[in-house]
């Protein structure tokens, strides 16, 4: 082998701190996951600048998988300084590895147990509070339901009592109505028993052909028994004029005008005065006066005389309505209405009249 072909040795062989540290045994490299590396003597080997580092015998494969950059550190002052630098570098590397991958802290079991018990206690207290609230709400709802049930029962009882009272009142009203109807029918039968059948027959004959002729049997009886006596006043001449005006429907009754009203421009003849009745001749306070036909003469009359004249006028007004066909009823209601009007004439003739007259 030529001298030119002999492999070149490491130029820093005598001054390389890594070499010196490994030669003196100060630094030993043990890969991760591998046991302690057995000591062996480092021999000098030839080194080629162009060759790759070779794997040491007895080392694991993982060491060769880690590329290590080679850097020329320059000439070293001594083995001791180089060893110190290498130890410092190794320590710095281990510290950096410790900071990068901190060791997990051990678990505190007692603290975890106390935390778990505290969570359980708090959960238990929360559940108890919720349960208490739910029980309280249920109690309130039960009380409300009980109160509503009582109110419902009371309303039902009141409704039953009201219904019973209404039915009782209705039956009472029906019973009273039936009794009144029976009494009315009885009175009607009694009245029909007292009525002169001849008078009713005369009314039916007049109703068949109603007329104002006082010579017919029906009106002739009414004139003789009611109209004549009712209009028979003390002053006979004025009484005859009043009867004629009532039959002809030309009599006017008006209240006495107030003294504060303006005087009437039309000349009128005042017969008698307000303190004397023109028909009876008695000293009475007169609140009304009559006028016969188109005459301008006025006659002051007392309340009694006015009531008698009014009763006769009401009778003639009703029979005129029957004659004109304005009253459409059966014979019996008409007859009883005429009897009521005749009763009014009889009472007025006897001096019974309303106070407003």
From TrEMBL:
Residues covered by region (Disordered): 28-58, 70-107
Stretch forming the signal peptide: none
One Pfam family matching this protein: Sec2p
Compositionally skewed regions (Polar residues) per UniProt: 48-57
Keywords: Coiled coil
Residue ranges that the Swiss-Prot or TrEMBL entry lists as coiled coil: 124-172
Domain GDP/GTP exchange factor Sec2 N-terminal: 123-189
Gene Ontology process terms (BP): exocytosis
GO CC terms: Golgi to plasma membrane transport vesicle
GO molecular-function terms, A-Z: guanyl-nucleotide exchange factor activity
Family assignment from sequence similarity: Belongs to the SEC2 family.
UniProt xrefs under PANTHER family: GUANINE NUCLEOTIDE EXCHANGE FACTOR FOR RAB-3A (PTHR14430:SF5), RABIN3-RELATED (PTHR14430)
UniProt name for this protein: Guanine nucleotide exchange factor for Rab-3A isoform X3
Origin species: Mus caroli
């Amino acid at each position: 082998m030529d001298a030119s072909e002999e492999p070149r040795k490491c130029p820093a062989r005598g001054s390389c701190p890594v070499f010196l540290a490994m030669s003196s045994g100060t630094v030993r490299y043990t890969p991760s996951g591998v046991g302690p590396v057995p000591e062996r003597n480092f021999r000098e080997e030839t080194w080629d600048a162009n060759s790759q580092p070779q794997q040491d015998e007895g080392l694991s494969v993982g060491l060769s998988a880690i590329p290590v950059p080679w850097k020329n550190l320059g000439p070293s002052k001594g083995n001791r300084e180089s060893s110190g630098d290498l130890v410092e570098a190794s320590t710095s590397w281990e510290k950096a590895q410790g900071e990068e991958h901190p060791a997990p802290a051990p678990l505190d079991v007692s603290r975890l147990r106390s935390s778990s018990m505290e969570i359980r206690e708090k959960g238990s207290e929360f559940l108890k509070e919720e349960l208490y609230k739910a029980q309280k709400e249920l109690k309130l709802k039960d009380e409300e339901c009980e109160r509503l049930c009582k109110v419902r029962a009371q309303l039902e009882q009141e409704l039953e009592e009201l219904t019973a009272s209404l039915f009782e009142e209705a039956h009472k009203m029906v019973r009273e109505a039936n009794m009144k109807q029976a009494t009315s029918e009885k009175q009607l039968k009694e009245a029909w028993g007292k009525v002169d059948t001849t008078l009713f027959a005369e009314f039916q004959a007049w109703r068949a052909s109603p007329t104002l002729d006082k010579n017919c049997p029906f009106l002739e009886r009414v004139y003789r028994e009611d109209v004549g006596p009712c209009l028979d006043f003390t002053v006979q001449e004025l009484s005859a004029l009043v009867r004629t005006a009532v039959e002809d429907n030309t009599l006017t009754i008006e209240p006495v005008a107030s003294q504060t009203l303006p005087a009437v421009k039309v000349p009128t003849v005042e017969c008698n005065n307000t303190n004397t009745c023109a028909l009876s001749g008695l000293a009475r306070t007169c609140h009304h006066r009559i006028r016969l036909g188109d005459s301008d003469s006025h006659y002051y009359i007392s309340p009694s005389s006015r009531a008698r004249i009014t009763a006769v006028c009401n009778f003639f007004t009703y029979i005129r309505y029957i004659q004109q066909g304005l009253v459409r009823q059966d014979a019996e209601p008409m007859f009883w209405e005429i009897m009521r009007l005749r009763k009014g004439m009889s009472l007025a003739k006897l001096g019974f009249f309303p106070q407003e007259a």
